[in-house]
């Protein structure tokens, strides 16, 4: 599914996708400051084809996280992403209203 959905459990979806043989990454909100729209512990699951379920920011940074997840899946190296109004990516990812968010992206083996 390519539409953002927070009504389905991303962790259960990750398990189902793994059972289907898909390569999967999990993005988890680690910290937020200010007006970040999703709390710590929120999840986004992404497969190698760019399909995703869940949300880490209500749409502000999902595109950037999905792109990074593709690299995490292929390289096998987890990474911490940080987005915020003070970063050079603030306008690109849509956090111009304020706030910061740290998202940990890892491949699920």
UniProtKB/TrEMBL annotation:
Stretches assigned to the XdhC- CoxI domain: 17-84
Domain of life: Bacteria
Source taxonomy: Bacteria, Pseudomonadati, Pseudomonadota, Alphaproteobacteria, Hyphomicrobiales
UniProt-recorded name of the protein: Xanthine/CO dehydrogenase XdhC/CoxF family maturation factor
Native source organism of the sequence: Rhizobium halophytocola
């Amino acid at each position: 599914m390519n539409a953002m959905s927070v009504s389905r459990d991303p962790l259960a979806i990750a398990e189902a996708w793994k059972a289907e043989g898909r390569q999967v990454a999990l993005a988890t909100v680690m910290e937020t400051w200010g007006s970040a729209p999703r709390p710590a512990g929120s999840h986004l699951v992404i497969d190698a084809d760019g399909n995703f379920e869940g949300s880490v920011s209500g749409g502000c940074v999902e595109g950037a996280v999905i792109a990074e997840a593709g690299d995490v899946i292929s390289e096998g190296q987890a990474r911490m992403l940080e987005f915020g109004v003070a970063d050079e990516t603030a306008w690109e990812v849509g956090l111009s209203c304020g706030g910061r968010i740290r998202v940990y992206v890892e491949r699920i083996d």
